[in-house]
Amino acid sequence: DAGVIQSPRHEVTEMGQEVTLRCKPISGHNSLFWYRQTMMRGLELLIYFNNNVPIDDSGMPEDRFSAKMPNASFSTLKIQPSEPRDSAVYFCASSLYRSGANVLTFGAGSRLTVL
Amino acid sequence: AQKITQTQPGMFVQEKEAVTLDCTYDTSDQSYGLFWYKQPSSGEMIFLIYQGSYDEQNATEGRYSLNFQKARKSANLVISASQLGDSAMYFCAMTPSAGGTSYGKLTFGQGTILTVHP
Fold it and tell me: Which residue, A94, B73, B97, B105, has fewest beta-carbon neighbours within 10 Å?
């Protein structure tokens, strides 16, 4: 089991550029989550999908952020245009509900720096 | 709305000793799940332990146990026989529903940095 795979691991870009973060969930998991971690705000849920359908995107900061899940094995989080305040670690996580719990398995994270 | 409070920004423990990391929560849901995750300096988030709100027994996973006190709305993590590798950030988290359909919409606390001294 390869776990949740995120790319890129590190991204440095300039303000105004488009950023695309990618995620491959664990095979067989039916829920996928995007979280953002910053020192100031901690871990925040941005959006989550269930069976490839977006369920709750209320955590997406603004229209510059968008997320897609075209199939069960791939999701993207896009920021366009990027701003310095978007600098953070972005985590993707997937889960499969079982035994009364929905335990999330996190990817290694994508560290984004916007200059 | 759910809220998790971790009041200890940092904790220190001697190797081989036990340590308790505090977590209190607030929710209006009758059914919920509580989790602890570990984040070492390398950055990944590692699941440690889960407790359902209707579970009568406190959860245990190896050296980790969750001291669940429902009336006090607390879910403290106890690590027994601390090891140097336990040094990390620890997050308490909860989801709105444990017994039914749960989408894992975790709300996290601010975390506690644990340092294990040799």
Answer: B73
3-class DSSP state of B84: helix
- Half-sphere exposure of B72 toward its Cβ, with a 13 Å CA cutoff? 10
CB contact under 8 A, A56 and B105: yes
Quick one: closest CA in A to B55, which residue?
A100
Residue in B93, B78, B106, B90 with CA at minimum distance from that of residue B17: B78
Three-point CA angle A93, A94, A95, nearest 5°: 135
Q: How much is the CA Rg of chain A, to the nearest whole Å?
A: 14
Share of chain B above pLDDT 90, in %: 77
Predicted confidence (pLDDT) per residue in A50-96, tens digit: 889 998 898 998 899 999 999 999 999 999 999 999 999 999 999 88
Contacts of A48 in chain B (CB under 8 A): 103-105
Of A42, A48, A100, the CB nearest to B110: A42
Q: Which of B81, B77, B103 is nearest to B4 (CA)?
A: B77
Question: Does B95 sit within 8 Å of A31, measured CB to CB?
Answer: no
The residue written with tokens 């509900």 in the block is A97
pLDDT score, position B103 = 59
- Tell me if B102 and A102 make a contact (CB, 8 A cut-off): yes
